[in-house]
Amino acid sequence: LNADPYNPVYAGKYDALGYIHDGWVDNDTLYAAHIGIGIMSIADMSDKSNPALLGTQITTDHFTHNTWMSKDRHTIFTTDEVDNSYLTAYDITDPTDIKFLDKAQANPGSGSIVHNTHILNDYAVTSWYTDGVSIMDVSRPSNLVQTGWYDNAPNETGGGFNGCWGVYPFLPSGNIIATNIY
Which residues pair with 31 in a beta bridge? Predict the structure, then answer.
């Protein structure tokens, strides 16, 4: 895009594992959520015409929806968009040997579906459809601890796709925006 942003030139694609529902990019590395096959993959995108698959991980609930990186770039957090799902942490310091660290729910036993997570400093700010917004301390990713929670759809319970669809924690004001879907 740098040469002429109004007329981008095709550089290549990564589709080694098929459809990517969501992804997180850090420089030349892609962290992809393959929702249909329940896998998170890591790809080296340095050579845009020939990306290299570095590693894969089957996620906790086999329906990988979203990925987001820790600030130190050692941990990836994933969400799986199914009933009774988890925010999950994986050690990715060696992309060829990804290791499970921990998983957590906003309201254990509620059956709620996790949707998207974003990492802000040492916190995972995550939308859960019927459970609202969860803020988890992820400074020790092998011990995820919920430190804040707000149910912005208190009349919604259980599984299903009603309630908190998205949360955005990156405003300069420090405010967090949450959106609902019905």
Answer: 24, 42
Q: Is pTM beyond 0.85 here?
A: yes
Which tens digit of pLDDT belongs to each residue from 129-151? 999 999 999 999 999 999 999 99
From the list 84, 86, 74, the residue with the least C-alpha distance to 122 is 74
**Spatial separation of the C-alpha atoms in residues 8 and 150, rounded to whole Å:** 42
What six digits make up the tokens of 38? Answer: 């329940």
d(C-alpha 165, C-alpha 3), whole Å: 36
Cα separation, 66 vs 64, whole angstroms = 6
Return the closest-CA partner of residue 167 out of 92, 66, 89, 83. 66
Print burial letters for 77-110: b (CB count within 10 Å at least 16), e (below 16): bbbbbbbbbbbbbbbbeebeebeebbbbbbbeeb
Q: In whole angstroms, what is the distance from residue 103 CA to residue 169 CA?
A: 21
**Contact (CB, 8 A) for 170 and 144:** no
